[in-house]
Amino acid sequence: MSDSDHQPTPTNDASGDTPTTKPAGSANAKKRKAKRGPASPRASVNVDRSTPLHQSRVFAMQALYEDDLTHHGLDEILQHVGIDRRRELIEFFADIEEQAGKIIETVAYLARNADSDHPAAAMTTFNEAADKAIRGLTESEEPVDRDLADTYLSIVRNRIEAAVNRMLARYRDGMETRLREALTEIAQTPPAVSLWDDEDDKPSGLYIDEKLTALETGTARDLKTTIANEERESLSTLMDILRRTEVLARGVESNLAEIDPYIEKAAPAFPIPQLASIDRAVLRVAVYELFYQPEVPFKVAINEAVEVSKHFGGPNSGKFVNGVLRTISGRLPEERRKSPAKA
Fold first, then answer.
1. Which residues contact 239 (CB under 8 A, 6 or more apart)?
2. Is 305 a residue whose pLDDT tops 70?
3. Closest CA to 230 of 342, 322, 36, 96
4. Domains observed in the chain
5. What is the dihedral of CA 163, 111, 103, 134, to 10 degrees?
6. What is the pLDDT of residues 166-185, one digit of tens each?
């Protein structure tokens, strides 16, 4: 996301005063500062990017940003955000189910076609090939934390890939045990006794008994169940994220006449139209939460906005947004400022 149509975000100090050229001969000011002593550390709130609330703020900011630059209209933008995210999530689950299913089939094929005449070599070949197949589940995928905007999707991908990998690892270990037992049984079986399906039509690989087949089909069944449950839960959470995204974006749109004056008073040297579009969107969402959503702790609203601005904005965006919001939060009622530091 870029904002090449606007000037870089101005640097702002923590007090919220927009800096201009520093006056010369500020020795007295330095003396006063030294007399006061070092500033006491400000309590901070760690930003948890994994929460649905954080993702809602990111989506809302993106929707307002796009509306600001394209004028497509908030209705259309929010609709596309929902459609695109649901499609990406559904496609991911379908893809990983297909990949994992192929790995299950591959491991079973390796066991069925192990060389019974050379048991030690057969086990080495099976282990190496099976491990390589399972590693391919994630190695073939693009990085899962591609962008802050995809935080929720990345979390879902990480979680389900870890769960599927654990399932495949158990399956591979079970197949290894059964394959080793079958090879041992073949080595110890008198030639007169056949372990093949049909001595006249001897298959190229080992005869796989019912236990081995049951492990394969059972794992495939468990895989489908696990992925279906994860998909259902993830889509439900995504719908909650999108609902809150709409509340934030429409709340900003409906209260813009009251929100923008707060920003203008906190940064008088930078009128709203002159702010970078990204920072303008971030500030509007944060101010809406500060004044219209009392259930959101004010420190959380500020720190979340700073986190988003640092990622999407220019090099000074985080500092500027932090200064503006610190100034604005000073106007909040005392009881609002005492809200717990958790959202």
1. none
2. yes
3. 96
4. 81-241 (no CATH), 255-343 (1.10.940.10)
5. 60
6. 999 999 999 999 999 888 88
